[in-house]
Amino acid sequence: MGTIVCQDCQEVIEHFDEEKVTTLYGTCPSCDNKK
Prior knowledge:
- The protein is an alpha+beta fold.
- It has one domain.
- The protein has a 3-stranded mixed β-sheet with strand order 2-1-3, with no helix packed on it.
- A hairpin with a 5-residue loop joins strand 1 and strand 2.
- The protein is elongated.
């Protein structure tokens, strides 16, 4: 199970299928609009 987390607000953006537990950091749409 993989998880994508917003690096600005720490909100979980999305879950995806992955063989091992993975956490990726990205930017969610609401934080992306603030920039």
